[in-house]
Every structure is written in structure tokens, then in C-alpha cells.
UniProtKB/TrEMBL annotation:
Belongs to the sigma-70 factor family. ECF subfamily. GO terms for molecular function: DNA binding; sigma factor activity. This is RNA polymerase sigma factor. The keyword DNA-binding applies. One of its GO terms (biological process) is response to stress. Keywords: DNA-binding, Sigma factor, Transcription, Transcription regulation. Signal peptide: none annotated. Residues 109-161 form the RNA polymerase sigma factor 70 region 4 type domain. Residues 8-74 form the RNA polymerase sigma-70 region domain. CDD domains: Sigma70_r4. It holds the Pfam family Sigma70_r4_2.
Length: 183
């Protein structure tokens, strides 16, 4: 079991950390939650049937750990909504993770601000599909949804993001050519 656990940890710990970091926007808390994920993995690995990929199984556990964390908090629904505010918390670390460096781009920052205005379900789908590059079926398994629900939520999320970004560009007096030129 130790070698299997070590292999799982080496292959996926960064992905699990990034997912939890996007959910809670706090490095230390995300690290604590990653530990909780792997504690649950140790306890449940003998029940893993292999019907899904190990990565999908780990994301499903990580999703449940994040939700359990919010449920334990007073006012967990409000905290969950607030956790997606990228400007509310600053990550302090000498070595930024690649996603933190990408946030320096104005367009990426704009997208994250707009993502904050999407529903929690839409955010989870966007994070899993586009940041963690899970397939539709893997995302469906991780969220315990149907593939149809993932596709519908993804479509609505992308439509909402596009609309919100267009509104933000218009509000800030930027044209789409200026945004494109900044790339």
C-alpha cells in the first residue's frame, strides 16, 4: 500500500493542491486540506474499485473535503462565495506557483474576477475542465453529476463568463482589440 500511496501522491498532489487552492484561496488551508484528502485516501483505498481513474477519484475526495470544510464553518455558504474573490486574499510565498504568475496578466485577472460572479457549480466545472484539464466524463465522476449536467453547466459558465468579460471591458472603456493587443 505504501508504494501505491507514494505513487498516487507523487502523480497528483500538485493537482489536488491547486484545485483546493482555487477553492479556498489560502495556501496554508489548502495544504491542510490536501493532507485530509490523503488521510481519506489511506482509509478508503481498499474500497477503490477502479471504475474511474485515480485522478477522478482523488478530485472527488478533494471536492468533498472542501465542501466538508465549508460546512464546518459558521456561515459556510457565504464563506464559500467569498473564497472565490481573488483580490480578497494574497498568497505569500517566495516561489509563486505557475498559476499565480499567470494572474499577472490583466486579461487573466479579468477572467478570474468574472469567474467570481459565476455560480459555485459553474466555477467548479471551469476549474476542473480548463485549469485541471479533466475530461467531461472525469468531471462528471468527480462531481457525481451526469455528463449532460457538466456540459450544460460548462456551456452556461462560458456564456456567463463571456458576457461578464464583455461588460467589464465596456465598463472600463477598453476595446477587445486593446485586450487582445496586450497579450
Amino acid at each position: 500500500m505504501n508504494s501505491v500511496f507514494d505513487e498516487l501522491y507523487q502523480k497528483y498532489h500538485h493537482d489536488v493542491f491547486r484545485f483546493l487552492f482555487y477553492m479556498v484561496k489560502n495556501r496554508e488551508l489548502a495544504e491542510d486540506l490536501v493532507q485530509e484528502v490523503y488521510i481519506r485516501v489511506l482509509k478508503a483505498y481498499d474500497r477503490f474499485e477502479g471504475k474511474s481513474s485515480e485522478k477522478t477519484w482523488l478530485f472527488s475526495i478533494a471536492k468533498n473535503v472542501a465542501i466538508d470544510h465549508y460546512r464546518k464553518q459558521k456561515g459556510w455558504k457565504q464563506r464559500l462565495l467569498e473564497s472565490f474573490d481573488m483580490s480578497a486574499r494574497q498568497v505569500r510565498d517566495d516561489q509563486p506557483i505557475p498559476e499565480e504568475m499567470a494572474l499577472q496578466s490583466e486579461e487573466i485577472q479579468m477572467m478570474y474576477k468574472c469567474l467570481d460572479q459565476c455560480t459555485v457549480d459553474q466555477r467548479m466545472v471551469i476549474i476542473m475542465r480548463y485549469i485541471h484539464e479533466l475530461t467531461i466524463s472525469e468531471t462528471a465522476e468527480a462531481l457525481s453529476w451526469t455528463e449532460s449536467k457538466v456540459k450544460t453547466t460548462q456551456h452556461r459558465a462560458l456564456k456567463t463568463l463571456k458576457k461578464l468579460m464583455e461588460e467589464m471591458i465596456e465598463k472600463e472603456g477598453m476595446t477587445s482589440e486593446k485586450v487582445t493587443a496586450k497579450r
